[in-house]
TrEMBL record:
<feature type="DNA-binding region" description="H-T-H motif">
    <location>
        <begin position="46"/>
        <end position="65"/>
    </location>
</feature>
<dbReference type="InterPro" id="IPR015292">
    <property type="entry name" value="Tscrpt_reg_YbiH_C"/>
</dbReference>
<dbReference type="Pfam" id="PF00440">
    <property type="entry name" value="TetR_N"/>
</dbReference>
<keyword id="KW-0238">DNA-binding</keyword>
<feature type="domain" description="HTH tetR-type">
    <location>
        <begin position="23"/>
        <end position="83"/>
    </location>
</feature>
<dbReference type="Pfam" id="PF09209">
    <property type="entry name" value="CecR_C"/>
</dbReference>
<protein>
    <submittedName>
        <fullName>DUF1956 domain-containing protein</fullName>
    </submittedName>
</protein>
<dbReference type="GO" id="GO:0000976">
    <property type="term" value="F:transcription cis-regulatory region binding"/>
</dbReference>
<feature type="region of interest" description="Disordered">
    <location>
        <begin position="1"/>
        <end position="25"/>
    </location>
</feature>
<dbReference type="InterPro" id="IPR050109">
    <property type="entry name" value="HTH-type_TetR-like_transc_reg"/>
</dbReference>
<dbReference type="InterPro" id="IPR009057">
    <property type="entry name" value="Homeodomain-like_sf"/>
</dbReference>
<dbReference type="GO" id="GO:0003700">
    <property type="term" value="F:DNA-binding transcription factor activity"/>
</dbReference>
<dbReference type="InterPro" id="IPR001647">
    <property type="entry name" value="HTH_TetR"/>
</dbReference>
<dbReference type="InterPro" id="IPR036271">
    <property type="entry name" value="Tet_transcr_reg_TetR-rel_C_sf"/>
</dbReference>
Amino acid sequence: MIEKNISHTPHADDGRKPRSDGEQSRERLLHSAIRLFAEQGYAKTSTRELAQAAGTNAAAISYYFGDKAGLYRAAFAQQSANPQDNIALYEQPHFTLRQSLEGFYAQLLAPMQQGEIARDCMRLWCREMLEPTGLWAREIDQNIRPEHEALTRVLARHLGAPDDSDDMHRLAFSIASLALQHMVGAEVLHTLRPQLLETPRAIDTWLARMTDYALAMADVERQRLALSPSTAQRQAEGQA
C-alpha cells in the first residue's frame, strides 16, 4: 500500500539548500500532481508525466518529495489540516450553538476559497475513494473521526442528549452533509450557478446560510427529543 511506502518521505528542508525558484517548482509539481492524479489515478500517472506537466524533471520529484508516492501523499494532504486546530474552531465551552456551527462550517469551507485547486483536490479525494491506496482510510481515522465526534459532543451539550447516541451522530452527519454536498458537488454548482462560488463573499454567504439551516435542523431534533419518552424518563431520573 502507498501508505507504507510514503511514511519516510524526505523533505526539501532537510539541510539541502533549495534553488532560488525552489518553492515555485515545488508548488508547480504539487498542483500538477493534484490534477493528474485526480484525472488518471496513482497507478496510471507516471513520474515523467508529472514532471512534464510541471515544466521540470523527474529529479525534482525526488528532491522535493522523495518519490512518486511521496508526491501523491503531499497532493492528497493539500486540503488537510490538523484536526485539533479545526476542532478548536467549534468545540469551545463558551460558544453558543450558532458560534460553534459557524466555526465548524468555516473550517470545512475554507478550501473553497482556493477556486479550481480546491475542486481538483476534491476530485483527487473521490479518486482515492474509488481506487484506495490506504490514505483515505487513514484520513477517516485520523482526521474525519475526531472532528465528527467533536461535533456530536457540541450538539449533545446544547441539546441535552448523550453525546454517543445515534441521534447525535445522525444529526452531526446531516449537518456536515450540507457542506460536503457543496464540496463534492462544486463542479455541478459551478456549472449551474457559478456566481454562488465565484468570490470570497459568496463563500461567506454559504457559511451564514448553512449555519441557519443547521440551527433549524438542531431545533427540529431538540423538539423531537423533548417529545421522546426516553428523554422524559432521563429528566425524571435526574430530578429524583
